Amino acid sequence: MADAVFAIERLKKRADFLACAQAPACAKGAILVQARPRDERPLVRAGFTATKRIGGAVQRNRAKRRMREAARLLLPQFAKPGFDYVFIARGGVTTRPWARLLDDVKSALIRLAADRDIRAASVQDPTLSDSPQKTD
Q1: Does residue 107 belong to any structural domain of this protein?
Q2: Domain annotation covers residue 69
Q3: pLDDT at 115
Q4: Which end of the chain is more exposed for a tag (fewer CB within 10 A), N or C?
Q5: What is the pLDDT of residues 75-106, one digit of tens each?
Q6: Does the residue 134 lie in any domain?
Q7: Residue 130 lies in a domain
Q8: Contact call for residues 115 and 44 (beta carbons, < 8 A)
Q9: Where is 89: in which H helix or E strand?
Q10: What number is the average pLDDT over the span 18-35?
């Protein structure tokens, strides 16, 4: 696997997590991924969170470790520079087979990229948007 041509950093400040909460999100299996465009610097930032709904501290830490490793493996291939990604654990993330968890993260990242491309294309060419055009 090739190394990323962009740097990957961690999100640590609450304000960054809150900003990503307003961004588009994709839930797949045992994970929810939020992606927020930030700027054009070749940098990807990733944050990880698990609520008490996942379980006690041991389960939450295990969930975050698994998400960090999945992100480490998949972000270089599927992340876009200039974006912040937040990975949120959902029920079953600690018991989900590793291959299925990787598939969940991969499909969520691909879906977010496809949605981002569709939104960008509809901004450039309004005839591509799904909303009906009003004619007089």
Answers
A1: yes
A2: yes
A3: 82
A4: C
A5: 999 998 889 999 999 999 999 999 999 999 99
A6: no
A7: no
A8: no
A9: strand 83-89
A10: 93
**Residue 129 pLDDT grade (very low, low, confident, very high; cuts 50, 70, 90):** low
Q: Give the pTM.
A: 0.82
C-alpha triplet 66, 72, 75: angle, nearest 5°? 120
Domain that holds residue 19: 7-116
The total of structural domains in the chain comes to 1
Query: And the tokens for 11?
Result: 């999100």
Which CATH number do you get for residue 111? 3.30.230.10
Beta carbons within 8 Å of 33's beta carbon, 6+ residues apart: 25, 26, 27, 85, 86, 87, 88, 105, 108, 109, 112
Percentages helix, strand, coil for the chain (3-state, rounded to 5) are: 45, 20, 35
CA distance 115 to 110: 9
